[in-house]
Write a structure and sequence with these properties.
224 residues, two-stranded parallel sheet, 1 helix, twelve-stranded parallel sheet, Pectate Lyase C-like
């Protein structure tokens, strides 16, 4: 699966927008933002295109129907943000904090999320097309009813994650941690690969628990 990288201009205009100056349907184009605090920003139909955000704060932001195109976010704080029905195309997120992030109904195409924390993140009814999570922590993340058919999870911690009612045919999971993950019966059609036999056994055990099957030794059964 080839994922297209964000397409940014060689030179971007430096900017430090004030949250109070960003209105609904605002367009931020071809900008470089460094150490900008946009915490708790609220806006509808905001568009960021061709932007690079470094060490920026978007924690607690509520950006309904956000449009995010050709954008890079590095070492950003997006914890507890809510981006409902966002449309995301060619996005790269690296070494960022997205604890408690909520993106219900969002659509992601050609996106990479690397070395980031997304514990308790929620992606209910989201759609992933050519999206890769790599070296991410997604403990207790919520993917209920999400379309994961175009997603790859590589070396991710999915402990306690919820996968009930997902669409997973074509999804790929490589060397992931599954302790306590739920709804694994919905991953029909996905590919799970593990370099270690121990990790393979851990996933098998997690599926067994998730589907309500009990494994036992014959000597432990009293069925005579």
């Amino acid at each position: 699966m080839k994922i297209a990288a964000p397409r940014l201009r060689a030179t971007l205009d430096s900017a430090s927008p004030d949250p109070d100056d960003i209105a609904d349907e605002e367009r931020l184009l071809d900008l470089a933002l460094e150490d900008v605090d946009l915490s708790d920003l609220e806006a509808e139909h905001l568009e960021l295109s061709g932007c690079r955000l470094t060490r920026c704060k978007l924690a607690g932001s509520d950006l309904d129907k956000l449009i995010l195109v050709d954008t890079e976010l590095t070492q950003c704080d997006i914890a507890n943000a809510r981006w409902s029905d966002a449309v995301v195309t060619r996005l790269a997120i690296t070494s960022s904090r997205l604890t408690g992030f909520a993106g219900p109904g969002m659509s992601l195409q050609h996106a990479t999320i690397r070395d980031s924390v997304l514990d308790f993140g929620s992606f209910r009814f989201a759609k992933f097309v050519k999206v890769e999570f790599s070296d991410c922590r997604l403990q207790n993340a919520d993917f209920v009813s999400a379309d994961l058919t175009g997603a790859v999870f590589r070396s991710c911690d999915l402990s306690g994650a919820e996968f009930s009612q997902v669409k997973a045919r074509g999804a790929v999971f490589v060397d992931c941690t599954w302790d306590g993950a739920k709804g694994l019966g919905s991953l029909a059609g996905a590919t799970v690969a593990a370099a270690s036999p121990i990790d393979t056994l851990a996933f098998t055990s997690a599926v067994t628990v998730a589907t309500g099957i009990t494994l036992a030794h014959p000597d432990d059964l009293d069925i005579r």
